[in-house]
Amino acid sequence: MTTRFFLMKENPKAYELLGELDKLGRESNIPRNLQELIKIYASNLNHCAFCIDMHTKEALEIGETLQRIAGVNAWREAPFYSDKERVVLELVEEVTFIHQHGVSDAVYDELTKHYNEKEIGELYVLIATINAYNRLGIMSRLQPKIDK
């Protein structure tokens, strides 16, 4: 499969604006390792190989464990995520598949036990941004480089 186009080249302003949202997410109060797990999980749900590759490498670089990265798709069964992380991963799933039933009251209520309103807003921006990147990557057929 070959890449169709590069948004950065063809529409740099759009790419720049999306990058500003990404920057807001990176500068949030959400721990960096959780930010990367959010990005990996959403990218897995969306089947975006480019983003899975990039965010897995970034997570490893900041010290996230291979076990938690590899296990994120089975977070409900895995013992190595906190309740605070679990509710975020469930939120990622509900936002990524928002067309099915929106974000449930149960997930939102659980979020409020662990995060304040500012942090919930930061989580929303993080999740919406990676979903936008995933969709652009998939539409563009962005391909990760093969490791040697």
TrEMBL record:
Tell me, what is one Gene Ontology molecular-function annotation carried by this entry? peroxiredoxin activity
What InterPro entries does this protein map onto? AhpD-like, AhpD_core, CMD-like
The Carboxymuconolactone decarboxylase-like domain, residue ranges: 12-94
Highest lineage ranks of the organism?
Bacteria, Bacillati, Bacillota, Bacilli, Bacillales
Supply the alphabetized keyword list: Oxidoreductase, Peroxidase
The molecule here is called Alkylhydroperoxidase
State the superkingdom.
Bacteria
